[in-house]
Amino acid sequence: MDFSWDDLRLFLDVARLGGLSAATQTTGLSAATLGRRVTSLERQLGEPLFVRSQSGYALTPAGEELLLRAEEVEAAMLSLKRWKDGAIGERVVRVSAGPWTSAFLARHIGAIWTASDRFGLELVTASHKVDIGRRHADIGIRNARPTEQWLAGRLIGKVAYGLYARPELISGVAAGYFVGVAGEASQTHSARWLHARHGDRIATRGNDAMSVLELVAAGAGMSVFPCFVGDADPRIDRMAGTIAELETEQWLVCHHEERHAPAVRTVTERIAALMRQYAPLFRGESLAA
Questions:
Q1: How far apart are CA 149 and CA 155, in angstroms?
Q2: Which CATH number does the domain housing residue 165 bear?
Q3: In the prediction, which pLDDT does 230 show?
Q4: Model pTM greater than 0.70?
Q5: Are residues 241 and 255 in the same domain?
Q6: Any residues with CB less than 8 A from the CB of 23 and at least 6 apart, and which?
Q7: 78 versus 62: which is more confidently predicted?
Q8: Which CATH number covers residue 46?
């Protein structure tokens, strides 16, 4: 039985988004066309892939099995495309990291990418773990050793955290208030630590890293930041030593199949060298930015 990659790609969109309507946005096809393509795929297999209802499309056991197989094909197709791009055209290396680390890399872009490089660079900023296995990124900077067997990890340092505030006792600082984190960013270990210990004193919140920093710099209250962020910002001061229980490791992660690709290897080595250079700042031992 021959499968069309185009049909499998449409199946993946419908399966991941839970229905035809949502998949019209990603595929550019009408719901009617998508429905016909899914039905055709089911006829090829000889069994239904979805349980259809008013609330959406739920995968059947056969659909779950095909999803796993189709994702393997997707990863292979992406790998083939990246090989082609690297051999024929300009390769784009995607680096995933949290908001603060992405901002740090952006400030030091000259250390990891130059205009003379034969590849582009994309920063994939996310508070959650980006899936390198499915090639949503080529390189990841994470706070823990990778557990996935298809990923290779290198320990490149440690990250210390501290409590910071604007030096002047104004507004929320004078009142002893804290600035908390809302939304998706509230799931980070430092945000949970702050809420667990000072949740009753949180008066203002921001739903992204930069807004929290701006609130603290404006005197709205105190908050927790990585030392490489807080110590490098002249508008705020660390109020005490580092918070030992928040210290994390810093791992540079790549897919086993991609780590030896010239562009990926180059960016990986440059990031590792940059982090070694600023290791004291990340550990909270130096105020040099």
A1: 16
A2: 3.40.190.10
A3: 95
A4: no
A5: no
A6: 10, 13, 14, 17, 29, 34
A7: 62
A8: 1.10.10.10
